[in-house]
Amino acid sequence: MRVLVVRLVALGMAGDVKRILSDSDQMLPFQLS
Length: 33
Hints:
By secondary structure, this protein is mostly helical. The chain contains 1 helix and no strands. The longest helix has 20 residues, at 2-21. The radius of gyration is 11 Å and the shape is rod-shaped. The relative contact order is 0.14.
């Protein structure tokens, strides 16, 4: 189950990066659970 954890962490980091890059844009549904 380590792959799931790694994927979750990677998705979380990508979400943070996208949020920072497109901070001025509307808050897109980054947190899709």
